[in-house]
What does this fold into?
Amino acid sequence: MSKTVAIVVFSGVQALDVTGPMDVFSEANRFLEPEEHYQLQVIGVEQGLLPCSNGLTLQAHQHFSAALQAYDLLLVAGGPQLPFVDFGPAFDHWLRDASARARRFGSICNGAFLLARAGLLDGRTVTTHWGDAAALAALCPTTRVEADRLYVEDGELFTSAGVTAGIDLSLYLLAKDHGPQVALSVAKRLVVFTQRAGGQSQFSPFLTPYAEEISPVARVQHYVMANLTGDLAIVDLAVAANMSARNFSRVFTREAGVTPAEFVEQARVDAARVMLESSRAALKTVAYQCGFRDAQHMRSVFNRRLGVTPLQFRLNFSSVL
It folds into this structure.
């Protein structure tokens, strides 16, 4: 049975938020029977030609006011200015009704802001581009925003992280519809990763900007990276910062945006990811060299943070197996 996938676009939309998911479902039709084909629609928030953020121009199939059918999947694309844009009550009303009619709905990147303004994220668990996560959480205090996830499934609601994560979400939904082999075939056609797990981090703490370089917090961040196997309790980090433990914890959390313990755990997970991706070292060796108590402790942290075990991560992402 065919399925209709609709993507909502607007002036300033991120082109890849639209074309990435559309190419996944379009390519899937190569491997499906005609009666199973996806029908793709682009719905415009405004009338006429819509410029993308990169200068390309899109022509929507129809204006939202005429889009009244029940879609199998309704996705709202994102755009650089979207956190600051409000398309008004008429669009919000349509989006609420269209999402209620759809079997599944969600967003790509910061398209989550349109869902939020329509009241569709209250009490839900979602993700968005990591750079917009704090703003989305402030806009929706009852929403749990998981900034370190590629995509999140919450019932019939599906949200993805920044830009290319829309491809990962689309491959995941395709696999749910038609099985992993079809998703694998599409991924090969598009020459992308087979399917990154939803729990895979969308960014690395090693790449996250440090606090002001001359600050004690930055000094401690460097210290953590260089001493993952050492004692990194609050008292040890406070000594490295030359501060009292209580004051250090408060200052670090304010400047880094995470608690010292969270930063340490993130750093150890990230170091383990690098080893799992680039070496054949035994899991117990990876755990030891990255500062975990043992392999079981590392497995527990991976499951909680990434939604996969270290072994599953290696099988999916290793470049040396």
Residues 260-278 form the longest helix (19 residues). The radius of gyration is 22 Å.
